[in-house]
Write a structure and sequence with these properties.
Largest sheet: 7 strands, mixed
Helix content: 25-40%
Shape: globular
Strand order of the largest sheet: 5-4-3-6-7-9-8
Number of strands: 17
Amino acid sequence: TSKSVTEGKATIWQHGNEVFYNPVQETNRDLSIIVIKLFQELRQKEKEQGLRHARVRGDEGIRVLEALSASGLRSIRYAKEIDGLQEIVANDFDEAAVEAIRSNIVRNDVAPGKITVSHNDAAVLMYLNRSPGKQFDVVDIDPYGTAAPFLDAAVQAVVDGGLLCVTCTDLAVLCGSHPEVCMSNYGGMSLKGKFCHEMALRLLLNAIERAANRYKRHIVPLVNMHIDFYIRCFVRVMASPAGVKNSISKTAVVYNCTNCTSFYLQPQGRIQPIYEKHKMARKAAKKSASAAAVDADATVPAEEESEPSKAPLQEEERKVIGQKHGPAIGPPCGPNCDVCGSHFHVGGPIWSDALYDTEFVTRALAHVETNSSLYGSQERLKARLTALLDEDPHEVLFHDFSAMTQIMKINSFSPILFKSALQSLGFTTSISHTYPLAIKTNAPSTIVWDVMRHWYKDNPATLTPSPNSPAAKILAKEPSIPPVNFEIPPPAKEKKPRFLKNPAPMWGPATRATGKRTATRPDEEAAKKAKISDPQEE
């Protein structure tokens, strides 16, 4: 069967399932258009400031590569909905997809030369365009499954300061169901748990960072989020040997308790400041004091001139003249959990730096609110971006509030009360865009469970926990903090939708495209019959 599909300003023609198309990913495509528009503005601003990595090709606009284009819908939308693009290369390895791209370009009256159709292996094409002068300003990779095989080529095919857009739909791998596959694809061990979708994002970011570091490049995250059944990452790739050195402090291993779900982060490296030597610092201090005295029309006492202080200066009194990189200090925990005494599962390494750029996401949300009529998924985009902004980008992973109450065998209560108690102790709290009952905080796991112990004392469970249960082991320890305040604080901001229900049943990944291969092709049927009837094959 054949049908036309309209999305945004583009209309494509679908012939059965020959070429892949999934309407669920309209949110992905809408978000990509918004991010590229804002990236254009950012590059133009940097160009006006004369920044090195903003040297675009004159005023001709940016070049975009869609490495896995399928029907060409995304490339056509880019061409018709983003002003100022110089060229879009729509590539696919499947012959049926390339034919569909060419046909859909003609149907949509795209200006000649705006979209260049390429029939090539995506990785090969990117390797062929990794030299300066051939690189793309934007590289978009949206495969069916994992993007891991394309990362090495992608980080080289994008210009310095360019935008790399990556989608992964293999969440069963990234969320702990196949940790051995995750290790081989992304170089990290995945863990099961409610924080698995955030961990999936951080595993992918770490894999991109490791790939970029091999070529003296590093990434700067702009927008990274879990949407429906996939994760989508937008990062800038910067050429900077110094930035590559600093990557050592942006990755960590996760220790996750097998019973109470507490977790600890072990950084893999650290950066330490190098201070000027004491003798140099004292000379600088004396010179500064002498200059100040002259300005005040005073003289420096003779004893200070002849006998400068020999006392060592404090670090804050000395000038930082550099930094050194080295291994981190650890481990952050013992062999058994401090909360319940259980063992740990070890995951990662994962990206442990900021998950997104607050200013960039704020601009993206404002753009959607101002131009909502342009995007079919504008309600879901607003909700996702609002939830992302409410999440602390610097805190890594979170505690599952629902799981904590289940472990303690108590009735669930408002997570706002729990967050209020942590805030009264001076800690920060936020939600996670991946899970509405997340407790994301800078409080240690031991403090988080101390707060739960206090709640249990005031609101005990109906049934006494069995002696060997995690709850009994947790309650066997007294809280290390005084009683806390469980009060609902006044609302700080206007409530907006953050977690929307799926708009239709079966809202998820679509069936892989068949290409030109179908079950009813006559040549396949004839070959099958010939093989069965050939006595030499038996």
